[in-house]
Amino acid sequence: MKFGSVDVASAEGAVLAHKLALPSGVLQKGHVLSANDIIALKSAKMDAIIVAQLSDGDVAEDIAAGRIADILASEQIEPKTAFTGRVNFYTASAGIFHAKADVINTLNRISPEITLATLNDGVFVEAGRMVATVKIIPFAVSQHALDEVLAEAQSHAVVSITPSVPFNVGLIATKLPSLKSTTMDKTRGTLHARLEVAGSSLTEEMRVAHDVRELSAAMCVMRNRTDLIVVFGASAITDRQDVIPAALETAGGHVIRLGMPVDPGNLLMIGELDGKLVIGAPGCARSPAENGFDWVLQRLLAQLPVDDDYISSLGVGGLLMEITSRPQPREG
Predict the structure, then answer these.
(1) Which residues contact 261 (CB under 8 A, 6 or more apart)?
(2) CATH entry, 2-53, from 3.30.70.260, 3.90.105.10, 3.30.70.1520, 3.30.230.70
(3) What's this model's pTM, rounded to 2 decimal places?
């Protein structure tokens, strides 16, 4: 590709390098100059113009971006039409986004003229969210570089979505005299909003005393009515013998994990009761601000494993924005 200033008379078919305002109208950057454009430029008394001229073996930016998009696209990740060398990708449904970092790094090393940027691997995305963008830097790229990128992308599922599955979720909230009913109402509303964006529903709620026997009985009732149980304790879980884990074991269930390396969200419990997962929510999950509870809930709603290995891997990146309203902010 040749780039630089040329005589207007010889610029037909070239790509305009910079936006131009003419008496007859505006010519945008990237516009392919026609015979009529040349006449307009001459009428504006312009003798020279900065353009890009494609050589043999070059592929125009929009065509190159579109060909890459065709390979990256899937049922859950939809590309838009290429413009100015860019294609944006959007989700068709809510779910967990996956990006293969090693493959993306390889693609981006092939040529600095061809770039792919994505969201972080493993994040939850709503339907209609932009998750990736391909951008061709110059006005054209070599066919050789494009073919190398296409071959690498063809051999991998570079970006993908694990869609969320509709769950009927039950909420059990425990009560103490110090906990206001308005706080419990807000907690229910916040949980409802978290579930709704993922296509799930809060179908049951029970409020019981912060007591092992009452909570255990509520869990036994809820396991037959819902797909997933979320327990908000009036007091945070501080030990495996505390009320919520003890109630789960009394009901015949077991604790999978208590505690996670995500802050806010440390004091989260995951357990199982007759095949139904039980989450003991941390106090910070009463707030709509992002915390470790979001990561676990979103992954469970996509039916992805949330085991000890997964939770143990969350430490890097697990220091989230502080939620000042939580009972014990990390800075005291």
Answers:
(1) 311, 312, 314, 315, 318
(2) 3.90.105.10
(3) 0.89
